[in-house]
Amino acid sequence: MKILMIHGSRQSGQLFRAKLQALEKLIHRALGPLQPGVELVYPTAPFALESSTGATSDLRNRHGSWSWFESESIEGLYPGLEGALESIASLLKDSGPFDGIVGFSQGAAAAVMVASLLEGNRKDAFARLEAEAGIPYPACFASLEHPPLKFVVSISGYVASHPDYRAFYDPVIRTPVLHFLGSMDTVVDENASMRLVQNCQVGDEKKQIVIWHSGGHVVPSGKRELAAVAHFIKSNVS
Q1: Of 68, 93, 167, 197, most Cβ neighbours within 10 A?
Q2: Active-site residue 156, yes or no?
Q3: Of the residues 154, 185, 193, 213, which is catalytic?
Q4: Is the pLDDT of residue 205 over 80?
């Protein structure tokens, strides 16, 4: 079993792994008896960023700051998104198949897009909406042979709201997605996060799975939150 772990903007795979040590241990403990040899893969995004001024951690100094695409949209569009999808498609091809993805912030937004692209009906949606100026179905996924994901854990994720990206979310995403949102998050707009939630529906009941934590724009580390992630993953792979 493999899980892809996608970091946020201005992070790296190594830094993300350091932040998720407690969760990684809990996942291995929960899934070990059912899925021997669980592997968590922490890639680093393709675009290097200039180091920010001020104090930085040793890990950030050693491994740098990286981004999957431009964090600040230009009129609602995200430059570099195509490159991000190409990078992730290469990971799926060369290191997959993956059962699911855990993503934070920008990585969560990308994770849900990837889940969408791997669903069986998505090419038709892109073809239909391309006629209305939407982006085409990414070529890097058109040639990719990878099964649909079994789950996504979206931590501080958000929707790409520009009409060009509508096909990612219309029809709604059916891959099971667990949304973690911080009640004190001042980085990601709550409306953007809730629009992502609304575009993800699980089962015939069309329910969404959302857990709020009391922190800000961070990966939650409380026992309740970590246990919820492990339970969600276990319930979707067993």
Answers
A1: 68
A2: no
A3: 185
A4: no
Active site annotation includes 65: no
Catalytic residue list contains 105:
yes
**Model confidence, pTM:** 0.92
Mean pLDDT, rounded, for 157-174:
95
Catalytic residue among 28, 146, 162, 217: 217
- Give 222's pLDDT tier (boundaries 50, 70, 90): confident
From the list 78, 76, 52, 64, the residue with the least C-alpha distance to 13 is 64
Q: Find out whether 39 and 99 touch, Cβ atoms under 8 Å.
A: no
Find out whether the peptide bond into 171 is cis, omega within 30 degrees of 0: yes
- Identify the active-site residue in 65, 105, 156, 193: 105
Task: State the residue for tokens 């990078």.
Answer: 87
Structure tokens at 232: 């969600």
Contact of 220 with 182, CB cutoff 8 Å: yes
Is the Cβ–Cβ distance between 233 and 203 less than 8 Å? no
The secondary structure of the chain, three-state, reads: CEEEEECCCCECHHHHHHHCHHHHHHHHHHHCCCCCCCEEECCCCCEEECCCCCCCCHHHHHHCEEECCCCCCECCECCCHHHHHHHHHHHHHHHCCCCEEEEECHHHHHHHHHHHHCCCCHHHHHHHHHCCCCCCCCHHHHCCCCCCCCEEEEECCCCCCCHHHHHHCCCCECCCEEEEEECCCCCCCHHHHHHHHHCECECCCCECEEEEECCCCCCCCCHHHHHHHHHHHHHHHC
